[in-house]
Amino acid sequence: MQMHQLGKTGPEVSAIGLGCMGMSGMYGPSDRAESIATIHAALDAGINLLDTGDFYGMGHNEMLIGEAIKGLRRDDFLISVKFGALRDPAGAWLGYDARPAAIRNFVAYTLQRLGVDHIDIYRPARLDPNVPIEDQVGAMAQLIKEGYIRHIGLSEVGADTIRRAAAVHPIVDLQIEYSLISRGIEDQILPTCRELGIGITAYGVLSRGLISGHWQKDATRKGDFRAFSPRFQAGNVEKNLELVEALRQIADAKGVSVAQIAIAWVDAQGKDIIPLVGARRRDRLTEALGSLSVELSAPDFAAIERAVPKDAAAGGRYPEAQLAHMDSEK
């Protein structure tokens, strides 16, 4: 497993990380035993970055990871946690809270659920418009002084917010969606991060399975939030799957899978970009790990660009109501 430094001030992380969100119901039912086995298989393969959020399954995901890492040597893995999203007992989303007091409350519960004494990378899931980013970063900086967290990250924020945050305390990475069909960060956000020495942990590298090569129309299940995603809606999903079939021709010619091509493309955009793969099963993890052996040539990149041009996706990456509140979209 190749290792890369996460930003200019961050830890050494594996070339890909494991995103654990899907193990806690966001994509419909998941198998607990298989989820834990997948986490163990990832660690055995050299992946050392586990990504979660305290609101995934309303604490379920952190407890699942806590069970998987129990008894393991703490220095053998890194945990990245997002916080701030509020949910009600029925699971509905209620907004965000990143007040300094709330941050201290969130981190206390996260440490308890994970069963660890510190979190390696801690980040607000979205920008709380009611709390200056300077106050949010300042609260996390205090948690670093107290030993509860090691590094500060950001998620889904724009270039101006990134600069303001970095002026308060070093930021190791920005977690944001980036894939062949979600390339908005290339305009301002990625250049800003590179100027400031901030890494990227890229989620959605397979666009929630849409460009994995495995997705079939009408495959969403009860409890799967993709049912509300514009790119999975009728009229859009058909066009997006046409892009996948164009990509499949390239993958077939190289003797690899569509998912491996898509992950390899993100990985090839720079060592400062760490793809997070959302594998919930060991077979999908094995496939994702195979992307690390895929070498893309200049003709390959040109063919991929023809197959999936920038902005070719039909539908937004989130519903318009959500995009309107996302700092990264401003």
From TrEMBL:
Location of the NADP-dependent oxidoreductase domain: 15-307
Membrane-spanning intervals of the chain: none
SUPFAM superfamilies: NAD(P)-linked oxidoreductase
Coiled coil region boundaries: none
Keywords from the named record: Oxidoreductase
Example GO molecular function: oxidoreductase activity
One Pfam family cited in the UniProt record for this chain: Aldo_ket_red
Matches recorded under InterPro entries: Aldo-Keto_reductase, NAD(P)_OxRdtase_dom_sf, NADP_OxRdtase_dom
Domain of life: Bacteria
Gene Ontology CC: cytoplasm
PANTHER family (UniProt xref): AFLATOXIN B1 ALDEHYDE REDUCTASE, ALDO-KETO REDUCTASE YAKC [NADP(+)]
Protein name (record): Aldo/keto reductase
Source species of the chain: Rhizobium jaguaris
